[in-house]
Amino acid sequence: MSSKISAPKLDISDKQRLTYIFVLGFLLMVQTLVTDMFLPAHPMIASFFQVPDAFVQYSLSAVTLGAAIGFFVAGPLSDSMGRKKPVLLALGLFSFASAALYVAPGIEAFVAFRFLQGLAGAATAVIAQAIIRDMFVGNAMLKMLSRAWLISGLAPMVSPVIGAQLLLVAPDWRVIPLALAIFGVAIFIFASRALVETLHRDNRRSKGFEGVNKRFIAVFKDRILVGLVLIGMFQTVGLFGYLNVIPFLYQDSLGLTPVEFSIAFSITAFCWFLGIQAGAKLGRMFKAHWVIFGALVLAVIAGGGLYLIGQLDVGIESVVPLMAMFLVSFGMTITPIQTIALQGHGPEAGTAASVLGVMNSFIAAAAAPLYPIIGSATTTGLGITVMLTHLGAIAVFFLVVRPGSVPELIKE
Predict the structure, then answer these.
(1) How far apart are CA 220 and CA 80, in angstroms?
(2) 13: phi then psi, degrees, rounded to nearest 5
């Protein structure tokens, strides 16, 4: 398969390449900010709207449901319309939804605007991946993804800290969506000036959504991509279990303040960031699919540790290292999965990237009833969830992906 794939011909300067690293990094960052900026404020939001904690947890499911729709729409649309117009539309929607959250009158409106934020954030992410695939393939794509993630990977590290600091300056959770609205407008201006169209008209698919079914069918015929999608779905259940549990585990059960929570979260997020860079580096040194397998094994070990310490009376100093190990494992799979999955899908890169995102978001939303059941009093439930989901991912790796059939990445 890889022998039939040629690398795109590029004619960009080093300055343009650096600009693209920043703009694509910011586009990938939006989706993470939608989730992580609000985490320190979850207990405060529940109190503000006078609803149980579970209602705020369900709002995170609204974000993932919106993301599923955003992935589904934006990928095929960008294959037919080009990349720039849809990404600017998504940034405009993100800015609007963030500003609207500031005046949300009740929990229903809050959930609805969070849904729109999720939709817009996913759209920017999937189009950013398609842009990278337009410009690079194989090892070159792996390297470009890792550099873009150098920028976007800052989001989970700094966004909870920024959110917590904003709550100290203005002890009202609505300062967070206001800050996101300002950020969205700034990225809109930057992207509108820096981005050029990377999908030539001659390479575009049918107009609008004409022929989208055929494109999705073509993508789903790629067994390796389907296997990688299933692996991502298992990982996503574990990740969203983590995201739903830790605001209440850290602050209610372990007694951390919002600022202390943001610091603990940022430490583990930094390990996620390191995992992304390690996965990209190892993916160029060794076969990328075996890097994915190694990361899945690491997650099973982390889940087992979380289960064991859940049986003991331990403090945050025992919890954070295992959470960090889990986040390292998740980060290690991001660039190898995206690069392997998109390598064989050039002009339909938007559709292929949307499949990766749609299914991950769908399973995160579908698993919403599981998250309150996991429990936040100890790490036991989260540990079981992480172990089982990643054991399932390992089974898919051997039964569906079939490592012996994965083609080599195209060399630079």
Answers:
(1) 19
(2) -80, 170
Q: How many CB atoms lie within 10 A of CB 261?
A: 26
d(CA 381, CA 180): 32
pLDDT for position 226 = 93
Predicted confidence band of residue 101 (pLDDT cuts 50, 70, 90): very high
Decide if 336 contacts 275 (C-beta within 8 A): no
**DSSP character string of 331-368:** HHHHHHHHHHHHTT-STTHHHHHHHHHHHHHHHHHHTT
Q: Which residues lie closer than 8 Å to 181 by C-beta, 6 or more apart?
A: 95, 96, 98, 99, 102
Whether 83 contacts 103, CB under 8 Å: no
The structure's pTM equals 0.76
Res 389 pLDDT > 90: yes
- DSSP assignment, residue 106? S
Q: What is the DSSP string of 22-52?
A: HHHHHHHHHHHHHHHTTGGGHHHHHHHTT--
Cα–Cα nearest to 222, from 129, 399, 336, 342:
342
**Structure confidence at residue 400 (pLDDT):** 97
CB-neighbour burial class of residue 6 (10 A; exposed 0-12, middle 13-18, buried 19+): exposed
Q: What is the dihedral of CA 364, 368, 370, 372, to 10 degrees?
A: 130
The position carrying tokens 């190898």 is 336
More confident residue, 143 or 231: 231
Q: Which domains, and CATH codes, for the chain?
A: 13-200+211-405 (1.20.1250.20)
| Residue owning tokens 């991946």 | 129
| For residue 51, pLDDT beyond 70 | yes
Say if residue 3 is exposed, middle or buried (CB neighbours under 10 Å; 0-12, 13-18, 19+): exposed
**Pairwise CA distance, residues 148 & 336, whole Å:** 14
pLDDT confidence of residue 3: 39
Q: Would you say how long the chain is, in residues?
A: 412
* Residues 207, 194: Cα–Cα separation, whole Å: 25
